[in-house]
């Protein structure tokens, strides 16, 4: 599969017409404070326009500072954050949205996601709380606080439950996605529903860098294993969100638009299921 993607300036159109960059910066485990602020500034200086964070990451305030200090026009950016497990439900979600906007020092969010579908503390009534949270998110869209809403780590049954009451269909499902776990059942269902698949941990948390197949494919294209893994995501139509706090790696992660992986090599990469970590089952997490 080869998509017509030529530049990090390219975008996908979400199911509500909002455009999202084809690659972004993930900030999970990016330390709050100077590191997060400077990482965002470096990324925006290099050309990133999609910044992904979450309330649970604890770095929204610093990321907001980095955005402000970058000098990049807010309307040229795409900022995502997420609802954490302790704020599921209608009123709690309304408060969480406002808190994230305050911490990020933004007037609106481009994308807001329910981070996990089935938190351990509310596992006996998760579907009801997701419906309530979604209602609050839909109202925030109507109020102009959010441009698009979506989910993260949702599987078929979670999407089916949400769609029973949702007035707005999720635009995005952000999941653990790389050659070690393609989550094909989820990505195929996302596609069927018109939901874009975003890939967090697109590099397999580093667990694929030394994989023999990945290394061989990388050598063939004179690219790094990370660049090949990101290109793999792009050619599958996913939005990869690689993480780094090092400017040279941030820059390297954008150098994935000057080559195309052949169908044969894509098939080799597709066959690496289980080569590194697999996705967590959201119904059996302990948080």
Automatic annotation (TrEMBL):
Q: Which domain of life is it from?
A: Bacteria
Q: By its UniProt entry, which SUPFAM superfamilies does this protein fall under?
A: NAD(P)-linked oxidoreductase
Any GO MF annotation of the entry: oxidoreductase activity, acting on the CH-OH group of donors, NAD or NADP as acceptor
Query: A Pfam family this protein belongs to?
Result: Aldo_ket_red
Keywords assigned by UniProt, alphabetized = NADP, Oxidoreductase
Record-stated family: Belongs to the aldo/keto reductase family.
Official protein name in the record = Aldo/keto reductase
Q: Which species is this UniProt entry from?
A: Lactobacillus helsingborgensis
């Amino acid at each position: 599969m080869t998509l017509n993607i030529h530049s990090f300036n390219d975008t996908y159109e979400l199911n509500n017409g909002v455009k999202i960059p084809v690659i972004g910066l993930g900030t999970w485990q990016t330390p709050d404070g100077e590191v997060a602020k400077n990482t965002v500034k470096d990324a925006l200086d290099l050309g990133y326009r999609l910044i992904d964070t979450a309330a649970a990451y604890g770095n929204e305030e610093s990321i907001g500072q980095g955005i402000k200090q970058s000098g990049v026009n807010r309307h040229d950016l795409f900022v995502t954050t997420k609802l954490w497990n302790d704020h599921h439900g209608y009123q709690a979600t309304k408060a969480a949205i406002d808190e994230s906007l305050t911490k990020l020092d933004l007037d609106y969010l481009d994308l807001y996601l329910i981070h996990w579908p089935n938190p351990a503390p509310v596992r006996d009534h998760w579907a009801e709380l997701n419906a309530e949270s979604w209602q609050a998110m839909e109202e925030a869209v109507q109020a102009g606080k959010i441009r698009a809403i979506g989910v993260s780590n949702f599987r078929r049954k979670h999407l089916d439950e949400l769609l029973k009451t949702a007035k707005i269909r999720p635009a995005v499902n952000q999941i653990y996605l790389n050659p070690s776990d393609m989550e094909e059942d989820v990505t195929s269902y996302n596609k069927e529903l018109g939901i874009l698949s975003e890939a967090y941990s697109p590099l397999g948390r580093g667990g694929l860098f030394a994989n023999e197949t990945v290394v061989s494919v990388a050598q063939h294209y004179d690219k790094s294993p990370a660049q090949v893994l990101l290109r793999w995501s792009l050619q599958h139509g996913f939005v990869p969100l690689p993480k780094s706090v090092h400017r040279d790696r941030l820059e390297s992660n954008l150098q994935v638009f000057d080559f195309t992986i052949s169908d044969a090599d894509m098939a080799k990469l597709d066959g690496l299921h289980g080569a590194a970590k697999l996705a967590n089952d959201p119904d059996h997490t302990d948080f």
